[in-house]
Amino acid sequence: MGSALTSPSISVVIPTLNRAGLLDQALDSLGKQSLSKYQYEVIVVDDGSSDTTPNVCRRHASHVALRYFRLMHSGTSAAKNLGIMTAASPIVLFFDDDDLADSDLLKEHLEGHQKHPEDNFAILGYTAWAPRLQVTEVMDYILNVSHRLFNYSRLNDGQELDFTYFWAGRISCKRAFLARRGIFDQRLQAAAHEDVELGYRLSRFGLKVIFRRSAVQYMNRPVTFADYCQRCEKQGQAQWAIRRLYSEEVIRENWKSWVVIGAEENWREGAAALGQKVGKVEEIEARLASSPAAQERDALVKELRRLYDWTFKFFKIQGVIKAMRAEALLSAPSTYPVAITRDGDGRGEKDEPATRKRARSDGAVPIVIGGCLRSGTTLLHRVLNAHSRIFCAPEVKFFRDFHSNYVKDPLRHVRFMNSARALAPEAELLELAGKAFITLQERAAARAGKPRWADKNPENVIYLDDWARLLGEAWVFVHVVRHPLDTLASMKEANFPFTIPPSLGERIGMYQRYLLAGLDFARAHPERYYRVHYEKFVRAPETVIGDLMTWLGETFEPRQLDLKNSARELGYGTTIYQLGLEDPKLAAESAIHSRSVGRWPTLLTNDEAQHVWQATRELWRVIEPDAPDVCLPEGNSPAARMVRDAGGASCA
Q1: Given the DSSP bridges, would you call strands 208-219 and 160-161 parallel, antiparallel or unpaired?
Q2: pTM for the predicted model, two decimal places
Q3: Alpha helix segments (H runs only) across 503-540
Q4: What is the number of structural domains in the chain?
Q5: Is residue 158 domain-shared with residue 22, that is, in the same domain?
Q6: Residue 155 belongs to a domain with what CATH number?
Q7: Does 574 score more than 60 pLDDT?
Q8: In the chain, pLDDT over 90 holds for what percent of residues?
Q9: How far apart, in whole angstroms, are the C-alpha atoms of residue 139 and residue 629?
Q10: What H or E segment, with its residue span, contains residue 219?
């Protein structure tokens, strides 16, 4: 839906979920900018809405340069990242779907960047309540008294601020800086602190935030006491998630006001009073609505603000506690027998439940293989399974089934994993079903006479947290990456309607999400991460697989590169194992070849290729920092064949 301008000056990125009415008003305000409509584009990323959001975007696309992308629900970080990667301009403004833009908003952000052209400078705008809203006591308190919503009272126009003011929804920055230095962490799915966490990482590369008071937008949605309590609870949950990413020292040094440190002790001291305090707030708000005399009103407002302060802080603490308990449930010791296992780094042995660390005593930990669909994971699976010590079964869609993660599934409501949620909470269901899944892997490997097992599914890359819940740290991840143009071309060629989205924009979003998830794991666990570059793999298979086997602590076996042999290992043409969900194209091959490298010009149109490369170029350069730009010739021209043969040659 919609099309990109050739060279807009600023891209407005709006993540949204089921707010069609508010989004309609937001887009209307963006269509009335003083900036020329040829200087900006609007990118709406729909995070799986079930309302009329697509229709709203379609209607506005007629009078503003608007592009619409839809994701299966992945969280606000994934939505913003897709916006970053698809933006056509050098400057990106993150804008909330429940805000209204002043007519000069975009002009002011651009002027701010003209004044501060360095890549590491971001511009923070000003937000007020929309004039149409009646400002209630709680709205006045969170914005103007406690500054919990936005802390503008101490800011001066033009002031340089630190990373704690990197407030998504009202901040603009250089796209290249984000692409090179960091984007939103997709493990943080809720709209809570995911922005300041990114700001913290960017601060290591010199991020500077400049406040521009004249860049104005308006929050277009009233906030009730209950709304803000819910927001605070989400912030607490986010604080716990971020606490798991950083040391306590980092949290204390950079987020001094956070409640995550000492949350358990504070919870024990105040939990019993929470219900009473909430009831008192509601009582006072009702009394104030009856217009009491001035003296009584002043006393009530004073008491109400004291209660607001306590309850909002405590709902954050409650969010931390809920997140802690959910994690504890997922990692609770199993009733399975205790096994003697070796640490993931092989430095010693210790007792730990068998379901948490499934490593053999010789350190041969399970291997998890993942990467974007059509990136070459099946080929690697065939090669590993041909090894005399490694059993790698055909795909078993455990996590995709568990999370009902299909593009379309008319029988979703009667699937076992979905209906079983009526029997147990999701965390408990994952623990129970996950044990069975791991046991099946172990027994299948034993039946094949192999001491080590591997699991290959492309979507493993987005379920690495779930793997950690099942295996602790005693496993390794092998990430298969492939050039985005060839990957998207292969998606177009394949006929997998249940797992590959129908539109190009959604497929690009899938590629970005899968690649970013793997890079996140690499950053967090470099000692357990190994990357296989598809193009290098098929051009020099013995070298690439030899290096991989050394990293895995195994010996390379030449038979691994004989696809006929690996087919026999998998039981093709026999009844030993069912074939499973394998790539029929690969099943017909007898040897590894590089004919699929650079095929994209024969499968993608020029417009499609330009769209793909524009959206993925900076992300791919995280993998290949020196990756050249690619030519975009017609599919059957001599230039196309030249590019195909060269695997994506640089433009002359």
Answers
A1: antiparallel
A2: 0.60
A3: 504-524, 534-539
A4: 4
A5: yes
A6: 3.90.550.10
A7: no
A8: 52
A9: 50
A10: strand 208-219
